[in-house]
Amino acid sequence: xxxxxxxxxxxxxxxxxxxxxxxxxxxxxxxxxxxxxxxxxxxxxxxxxxxxxxxxxxxxxxxxxxxxxxxxxxxxxxxxxxxxxxxxxxxxxxxxxxxxxxxxxxxxxxxxxxxxxxxxxxxxxxxxxxxxxxxxxxxxxxxxxxxxxxxxxxxxxxxxxxxxxxxxxxxx
Length: 172
Known about the structure:
By secondary structure, the chain is mostly helical. The protein folds into two domains: 8-85, no CATH class; 106-172, no CATH class. The protein contains eight helices and no strands. It has helices spanning 6-45, 50-67, 72-82, 86-105, 110-118, 123-143, 147-156, 160-170. Helix 4 packs across helix 6 (123-143).
């Protein structure tokens, strides 16, 4: 164990405020950066409207606090998509999570598989894709039969929107 003599102790005490300041800045940097990005975002959105800029700052701060409870791939996706627009990032996360839950309760069929492959980690697009394809498939099965349907299915396979379009273009 080393002992600090008087001169060394004075030197450390002299530098202590400097080290404390560096520590404080390094610990608060994300908060400062977040506040700075909020101010920049709202100034860009509302350069000539003080009231709207103030409202924007309040909304962005609230959204940033809300983001603290989320993590993972969905948050990363939404942050890449929306950057420092925390309101839209939070909205994106909530939409993606709701779609992820909806997808988990939907049929696990070739439509779901194809949509997941086409839209990896974009659950709202997977949900939309599957709804559109199932709707087209149901319409085809209810309303069309015969050689035109067979030819269009041969051409487009399980891309049901295209099969439906093909049939309609053929005038069936």
